[in-house]
Design goal:
Length: 246
Protein backbone atom coordinates (compact mmCIF):
# COMPACT_ATOMS: atom_id res chain seq x y z
CA UNK A 1 0.00 0.00 0.00
CA UNK A 2 1.30 3.45 -0.83
CA UNK A 3 0.05 6.89 0.12
CA UNK A 4 -2.56 8.33 -2.23
CA UNK A 5 -3.38 11.56 -0.42
CA UNK A 6 -1.25 13.53 1.96
CA UNK A 7 -2.74 16.58 3.60
CA UNK A 8 0.25 18.51 4.87
CA UNK A 9 -0.15 21.26 7.48
CA UNK A 10 -3.23 22.94 6.03
CA UNK A 11 -4.88 25.89 7.72
CA UNK A 12 -8.10 27.63 6.72
CA UNK A 13 -9.51 30.79 8.32
CA UNK A 14 -12.87 32.43 7.80
CA UNK A 15 -12.81 36.08 8.88
CA UNK A 16 -9.98 35.35 11.30
CA UNK A 17 -11.62 32.18 12.69
CA UNK A 18 -9.45 29.08 12.24
CA UNK A 19 -11.72 26.32 10.89
CA UNK A 20 -8.69 24.12 10.05
CA UNK A 21 -5.58 24.51 12.14
CA UNK A 22 -2.35 23.03 10.80
CA UNK A 23 -4.04 19.75 9.88
CA UNK A 24 -2.01 16.83 8.53
CA UNK A 25 -3.17 13.35 7.63
CA UNK A 26 -2.45 10.69 5.05
CA UNK A 27 -4.74 8.29 3.21
CA UNK A 28 -3.41 5.06 1.67
CA UNK A 29 -4.39 4.06 -1.86
CA UNK A 30 -6.81 1.33 -0.78
CA UNK A 31 -9.08 0.73 2.17
CA UNK A 32 -11.62 2.54 4.27
CA UNK A 33 -10.94 5.51 6.54
CA UNK A 34 -13.48 7.26 8.75
CA UNK A 35 -13.23 10.88 9.80
CA UNK A 36 -15.40 11.81 12.73
CA UNK A 37 -15.76 14.84 14.93
CA UNK A 38 -18.37 16.97 16.65
CA UNK A 39 -20.21 19.83 14.95
CA UNK A 40 -17.84 22.48 13.71
CA UNK A 41 -14.77 20.22 13.92
CA UNK A 42 -13.81 21.12 10.36
CA UNK A 43 -14.92 17.98 8.51
CA UNK A 44 -16.73 19.78 5.71
CA UNK A 45 -13.96 22.34 5.36
CA UNK A 46 -11.45 19.48 5.11
CA UNK A 47 -13.44 17.93 2.24
CA UNK A 48 -13.79 21.34 0.58
CA UNK A 49 -10.01 21.83 0.67
CA UNK A 50 -9.21 18.37 -0.70
CA UNK A 51 -11.72 18.73 -3.55
CA UNK A 52 -10.58 22.23 -4.47
CA UNK A 53 -13.72 24.10 -3.36
CA UNK A 54 -11.86 26.01 -0.65
CA UNK A 55 -8.29 27.18 -0.99
CA UNK A 56 -6.29 26.83 2.25
CA UNK A 57 -4.33 29.78 3.63
CA UNK A 58 -1.31 27.53 3.94
CA UNK A 59 -0.28 23.90 3.56
CA UNK A 60 -0.28 21.39 0.73
CA UNK A 61 -2.56 18.62 -0.49
CA UNK A 62 -0.37 16.06 -2.22
CA UNK A 63 -1.82 13.50 -4.59
CA UNK A 64 -0.59 10.23 -6.06
CA UNK A 65 2.85 8.79 -6.74
CA UNK A 66 4.16 12.07 -8.07
CA UNK A 67 2.93 13.96 -4.97
CA UNK A 68 1.21 16.56 -7.14
CA UNK A 69 0.03 19.55 -5.10
CA UNK A 70 -3.73 19.97 -5.61
CA UNK A 71 -3.89 23.39 -3.96
CA UNK A 72 -4.90 25.96 -6.55
CA UNK A 73 -6.30 23.42 -9.04
CA UNK A 74 -9.96 23.74 -10.05
CA UNK A 75 -12.60 21.38 -8.67
CA UNK A 76 -13.15 19.84 -12.10
CA UNK A 77 -9.43 19.26 -12.64
CA UNK A 78 -9.19 17.53 -9.25
CA UNK A 79 -12.25 15.41 -10.03
CA UNK A 80 -10.64 14.35 -13.31
CA UNK A 81 -7.53 13.25 -11.44
CA UNK A 82 -9.75 10.63 -9.80
CA UNK A 83 -11.26 12.22 -6.72
CA UNK A 84 -15.00 11.59 -6.39
CA UNK A 85 -17.14 13.32 -3.76
CA UNK A 86 -20.51 12.13 -2.53
CA UNK A 87 -22.46 14.92 -0.86
CA UNK A 88 -24.89 14.22 1.95
CA UNK A 89 -28.08 14.59 -0.06
CA UNK A 90 -28.61 12.21 -2.95
CA UNK A 91 -28.51 13.94 -6.33
CA UNK A 92 -29.68 11.55 -8.99
CA UNK A 93 -31.72 12.25 -12.13
CA UNK A 94 -35.14 11.42 -10.73
CA UNK A 95 -36.97 11.19 -14.05
CA UNK A 96 -34.45 8.74 -15.53
CA UNK A 97 -34.19 5.05 -14.80
CA UNK A 98 -31.49 3.55 -12.60
CA UNK A 99 -29.81 2.15 -15.74
CA UNK A 100 -29.93 5.54 -17.47
CA UNK A 101 -28.42 7.26 -14.45
CA UNK A 102 -25.53 4.80 -14.37
CA UNK A 103 -25.15 4.98 -18.12
CA UNK A 104 -24.85 8.77 -18.05
CA UNK A 105 -22.29 8.62 -15.27
CA UNK A 106 -20.32 6.06 -17.23
CA UNK A 107 -20.22 8.20 -20.37
CA UNK A 108 -20.03 11.58 -18.79
CA UNK A 109 -16.67 12.47 -17.36
CA UNK A 110 -13.57 11.94 -19.38
CA UNK A 111 -14.57 12.38 -22.99
CA UNK A 112 -17.49 14.67 -23.83
CA UNK A 113 -17.47 13.68 -27.51
CA UNK A 114 -18.19 10.14 -26.49
CA UNK A 115 -21.36 11.30 -24.74
CA UNK A 116 -22.48 13.23 -27.79
CA UNK A 117 -21.82 10.68 -30.49
CA UNK A 118 -21.46 7.24 -29.03
CA UNK A 119 -24.21 4.66 -28.90
CA UNK A 120 -24.39 2.48 -25.87
CA UNK A 121 -21.99 -0.40 -26.49
CA UNK A 122 -22.41 -3.96 -25.14
CA UNK A 123 -19.43 -3.19 -22.90
CA UNK A 124 -21.29 -0.17 -21.45
CA UNK A 125 -24.31 -2.37 -20.76
CA UNK A 126 -22.17 -4.99 -19.04
CA UNK A 127 -20.49 -2.32 -16.94
CA UNK A 128 -23.86 -0.78 -15.94
CA UNK A 129 -25.04 -4.20 -14.82
CA UNK A 130 -21.83 -4.87 -12.90
CA UNK A 131 -22.15 -1.58 -11.03
CA UNK A 132 -25.85 -2.21 -10.34
CA UNK A 133 -24.84 -5.59 -8.93
CA UNK A 134 -22.20 -3.97 -6.77
CA UNK A 135 -24.62 -1.41 -5.32
CA UNK A 136 -27.45 -3.93 -4.94
CA UNK A 137 -29.83 -2.36 -7.47
CA UNK A 138 -29.66 -4.91 -10.25
CA UNK A 139 -33.35 -5.76 -9.90
CA UNK A 140 -34.23 -2.05 -10.05
CA UNK A 141 -32.42 -1.12 -13.29
CA UNK A 142 -35.65 -0.26 -15.10
CA UNK A 143 -37.19 1.79 -12.28
CA UNK A 144 -37.28 5.55 -12.26
CA UNK A 145 -34.71 6.85 -9.80
CA UNK A 146 -37.38 9.10 -8.28
CA UNK A 147 -39.26 5.99 -7.08
CA UNK A 148 -36.32 4.64 -5.10
CA UNK A 149 -36.10 4.84 -1.31
CA UNK A 150 -33.69 7.36 0.23
CA UNK A 151 -31.13 4.62 0.86
CA UNK A 152 -31.41 3.27 -2.67
CA UNK A 153 -30.87 6.75 -4.09
CA UNK A 154 -27.72 7.07 -2.01
CA UNK A 155 -26.46 3.74 -3.38
CA UNK A 156 -27.29 4.81 -6.91
CA UNK A 157 -25.28 7.97 -6.49
CA UNK A 158 -22.37 5.98 -5.07
CA UNK A 159 -22.71 3.74 -8.14
CA UNK A 160 -22.60 6.81 -10.40
CA UNK A 161 -19.37 7.84 -8.74
CA UNK A 162 -17.97 4.30 -9.04
CA UNK A 163 -18.79 4.43 -12.76
CA UNK A 164 -16.16 7.14 -13.03
CA UNK A 165 -13.67 4.82 -11.38
CA UNK A 166 -12.28 7.28 -8.82
CA UNK A 167 -9.05 6.50 -6.99
CA UNK A 168 -10.46 8.21 -3.91
CA UNK A 169 -14.11 8.37 -2.94
CA UNK A 170 -15.02 10.96 -0.30
CA UNK A 171 -18.41 10.20 1.23
CA UNK A 172 -20.25 12.66 3.47
CA UNK A 173 -22.50 11.08 6.13
CA UNK A 174 -23.83 8.20 4.04
CA UNK A 175 -25.86 6.72 6.89
CA UNK A 176 -27.95 9.83 7.61
CA UNK A 177 -31.67 9.09 7.29
CA UNK A 178 -31.16 5.39 6.58
CA UNK A 179 -32.88 2.40 8.16
CA UNK A 180 -30.79 -0.17 10.03
CA UNK A 181 -30.96 -2.57 7.06
CA UNK A 182 -29.92 0.18 4.66
CA UNK A 183 -26.99 1.07 6.87
CA UNK A 184 -25.74 -2.52 6.81
CA UNK A 185 -26.00 -2.60 3.04
CA UNK A 186 -24.12 0.71 2.85
CA UNK A 187 -21.32 -0.60 5.05
CA UNK A 188 -20.92 -3.67 2.81
CA UNK A 189 -20.99 -1.56 -0.32
CA UNK A 190 -18.34 0.88 0.90
CA UNK A 191 -16.18 -2.00 2.14
CA UNK A 192 -16.32 -3.62 -1.30
CA UNK A 193 -15.55 -0.33 -3.05
CA UNK A 194 -12.53 0.15 -0.77
CA UNK A 195 -10.92 -3.10 -1.89
CA UNK A 196 -9.65 -1.40 -5.04
CA UNK A 197 -9.56 2.28 -4.07
CA UNK A 198 -9.39 4.62 -1.10
CA UNK A 199 -12.75 5.43 0.51
CA UNK A 200 -12.93 8.19 3.12
CA UNK A 201 -16.20 8.37 5.04
CA UNK A 202 -17.02 11.50 7.03
CA UNK A 203 -19.56 10.59 9.67
CA UNK A 204 -21.19 11.64 12.94
CA UNK A 205 -22.69 8.29 13.73
CA UNK A 206 -20.35 6.22 15.94
CA UNK A 207 -22.37 3.01 15.47
CA UNK A 208 -22.05 3.27 11.72
CA UNK A 209 -18.32 3.89 12.05
CA UNK A 210 -18.03 0.82 14.28
CA UNK A 211 -19.54 -1.29 11.51
CA UNK A 212 -17.07 0.10 9.00
CA UNK A 213 -14.35 -1.47 11.14
CA UNK A 214 -11.56 0.77 9.90
CA UNK A 215 -9.00 3.31 11.04
CA UNK A 216 -10.65 6.42 12.45
CA UNK A 217 -9.41 10.00 12.56
CA UNK A 218 -11.10 12.25 15.10
CA UNK A 219 -11.11 15.95 14.25
CA UNK A 220 -11.72 18.69 16.77
CA UNK A 221 -11.34 22.42 16.29
CA UNK A 222 -9.69 21.87 12.94
CA UNK A 223 -6.98 19.47 14.04
CA UNK A 224 -6.46 15.74 14.56
CA UNK A 225 -7.40 14.89 18.13
CA UNK A 226 -6.84 11.13 17.92
CA UNK A 227 -6.29 8.42 15.34
CA UNK A 228 -6.48 4.62 15.37
CA UNK A 229 -9.13 1.92 15.75
CA UNK A 230 -12.55 3.04 16.98
CA UNK A 231 -11.89 1.29 20.31
CA UNK A 232 -8.62 3.15 20.62
CA UNK A 233 -10.05 6.60 19.89
CA UNK A 234 -13.20 6.12 21.98
CA UNK A 235 -11.09 5.25 25.00
CA UNK A 236 -8.99 8.39 24.55
CA UNK A 237 -9.80 10.85 27.35
CA UNK A 238 -9.59 13.91 25.07
CA UNK A 239 -12.10 12.33 22.68
CA UNK A 240 -14.43 11.42 25.54
CA UNK A 241 -14.26 14.97 26.87
CA UNK A 242 -14.97 16.51 23.47
CA UNK A 243 -17.87 14.17 22.70
CA UNK A 244 -19.42 14.69 26.10
CA UNK A 245 -18.89 18.43 25.68
CA UNK A 246 -16.67 18.85 28.70
N1 LIG B 1 -17.87 29.90 4.92
C1 LIG B 1 -17.68 30.01 6.23
N2 LIG B 1 -17.63 31.19 6.86
C2 LIG B 1 -17.43 31.32 8.17
N3 LIG B 1 -17.24 30.26 9.01
C3 LIG B 1 -17.29 29.04 8.46
C4 LIG B 1 -17.51 28.84 7.06
N4 LIG B 1 -17.50 27.49 6.83
C5 LIG B 1 -17.28 26.90 8.02
N5 LIG B 1 -17.16 27.82 8.99
C6 LIG B 1 -16.88 27.54 10.40
O1 LIG B 1 -15.75 26.69 10.46
C7 LIG B 1 -15.92 25.69 11.47
C8 LIG B 1 -15.79 24.32 10.85
O2 LIG B 1 -16.93 24.09 10.05
P1 LIG B 1 -17.19 22.73 9.25
O3 LIG B 1 -18.48 22.91 8.52
O4 LIG B 1 -16.00 22.39 8.45
O5 LIG B 1 -17.35 21.70 10.44
P2 LIG B 1 -18.01 20.24 10.40
O6 LIG B 1 -17.11 19.38 11.21
O7 LIG B 1 -18.28 19.83 9.01
O8 LIG B 1 -19.36 20.47 11.19
P3 LIG B 1 -20.79 19.77 10.98
O9 LIG B 1 -20.64 18.40 11.50
O10 LIG B 1 -21.67 20.64 11.82
O11 LIG B 1 -21.11 19.86 9.52
C9 LIG B 1 -17.28 25.95 12.10
O12 LIG B 1 -17.09 26.68 13.29
C10 LIG B 1 -18.00 26.76 11.07
O13 LIG B 1 -18.95 27.65 11.67
Amino acid sequence: MSTLLEVDSISVSFDGFRAINNLSLTVPDTGLRAIIGPNGAGKTTFMDVVTGKTRPDSGRVLWGDGAMNLVGLSESRIARLGLGRKFQRPTVFEAQSVAENLDMALRNPRNPFRVLFAKRTPEDRTRVEAIAEEIGLVSHLGRRAGELSHGQKQWLEIGMLLAQDPRLLLVDEPAAGMTVGEREHTTDLLGRAAKTRAVVVVEHDMEFVRRLDCRVTVLHEGRVLAEGSLDHVTSDQDVIDVYLGR
